Amino acid sequence: MKASDLLVKCLETEGIEYIFGVPGEENADFMMSLEKSSDLRFVLCRHEQGAAFMAEVYGRLTGTPAACLSTLGPGATNLITGVADANMDRAPMLVLTGQGSTKRLHKESHQIMDVVKMFEPVTKWAETVVHADTIPEIIRKAVRVARTEKPGAVLVELPEDVAKRDTAAKPISPIRYRRPQAAPEAVEELANHIRRARRPVILAGNGCVRKRASNELRELVSLTGIGVLNTFMGKGAVDPDAPECLYTIGLGTKDIGTCAIDAADLVIAIGFDMVEYHPHLWNPEGDKPVVSIDFLPAEIDEHFNPQCELVGDIADNIAALVKAFKEEAAPDFDLRQQAATRGDMQAELLEHASNDGEGPVKPQKVLHEVEKLYGDDGLLLSDVGAHKMWIARHYHCRTPNGCLIPNGFCSMGFALPGAIGASMVDPERDIISICGDAGFLMNVQEMETAKRLESNITVMIWEDHAYGLIAWKQDQEFGHHTDLAFGNPDWRQLAAAFGWHYQQVEAGGELPGVLQAAREHRGPSLILVPIDYRENQKLTERLGELTCSI
């Protein structure tokens, strides 16, 4: 068979379902082969970056890679931001790029660039197919590497002349395997560290919302009573209604949750990635005792030096800890400060819940209403901007991966295409994206993709006519900000042009009805909210005066 046919067969054998992308001349053979597949669905996108974000969210929600596809040169460079975001946020992904003929790769030639070298820093593995017979091995390795903890992106490049060659090679059937568990002695050593502590606290990261880990974590905290602070990407690891939930940490400044770490005599980091919330922000002297449970050994850092590590499958290792504490009762910890932390944060969450007045709406009010509709089993995707900080602090979901926030690479433009990818996973799920007016327009062209697919999604824009997060940070450091203002389109006309349902909020009291109408609408829906970002500076001032309870 032709090499491009074999590549499709290998992807089918791996169970790949979706390829999101923008094709070109150099991958035309692959597209012709793909067209004949009954198992693979190609989703035509309007920009390669949007395609990468769709594949990223599919991978984060399912644990199985989807593919994003581009041609060579500018198509590949357009992919790279979304690929880097997926790789740093631990989403399994296949990146498929075309390339010119191998007869011209060694010299200056039209659109030729070294795609593999460009992608090496933002992928787990990147390789060119130079011989058709190697396709089964390359695809088997690519999927295995992408899925292996910690998951990430893998690039496979197929030159146009190689795609046309004949081959007698056959796909390799995948063999799945379980990750190892730490040795019993290591489990007992870490359990003893916890037993000796008086005020332990758990820091739950991205790894806690994958691979059954959340269920085991919930049992551990229920058994021991130890409080849990989740990172931006660890939301849903524990139920926010559980008394052990201390909500989210990671704002980049001292916050209520930081008090729980300040008071702790042991931090139990579980599934924690350094990119989520650097330890120098919560362990500035490097003297806070830390233990770690993760898929890989901890990154070397002077502020994060675990005294004990359980390396291997997180869920299995937490289950082993649960067993240890069932056999010998957990100590009588002093968790009064953690209870105070939870109480103080609950008061903050409810402060603006009844703010129904006219004019710009407070971020806290918006998220209170969104959580009531989407917090149980819906999905919220956050773009990057000032709204992300409010979502991280004030939105809490009851299911793992019920809130997706890009917080490793932190790329703007994520949430609209990400919602489309999420709708491919579960078309009946209630899905809402919250974007700033800046981030939304970075991939606005995917509104057409959403309408063509009739994606059942709601996108909410928080409008402030500026790069609000940059203004917030400049104000904090310099006392003022540079010119960051811009104009916006007529949102109603924009929605109409793409065939989207549209609503605009004029007062906080309208939010419940507007959200419900959008949720009930079949197809894509746009909501515009004029947002009161005066709350940014108020929060900064309030946290600057923060004193910890007890």
TrEMBL record:
GO MF entries: acetolactate synthase activity; flavin adenine dinucleotide binding; magnesium ion binding; thiamine pyrophosphate binding
Thiamine pyrophosphate enzyme TPP-binding domain residues: 383-527
Keywords: Thiamine pyrophosphate, Transferase
This enzyme's EC code(s): 2.2.1.6
Annotated ranges, domain Thiamine pyrophosphate enzyme N-terminal TPP-binding: 1-117
Residue span, Thiamine pyrophosphate enzyme central domain: 187-321
Gene3D superfamilies from the UniProt entry: 3.40.50.970, TPP-binding domain (3.40.50.1220)
GO CC annotation: acetolactate synthase complex
Biological process annotations from GO: isoleucine biosynthetic process; L-valine biosynthetic process
Stated family: Belongs to the TPP enzyme family.
Name assigned to this protein: Acetolactate synthase, large subunit
Species of provenance: Congregibacter litoralis KT71
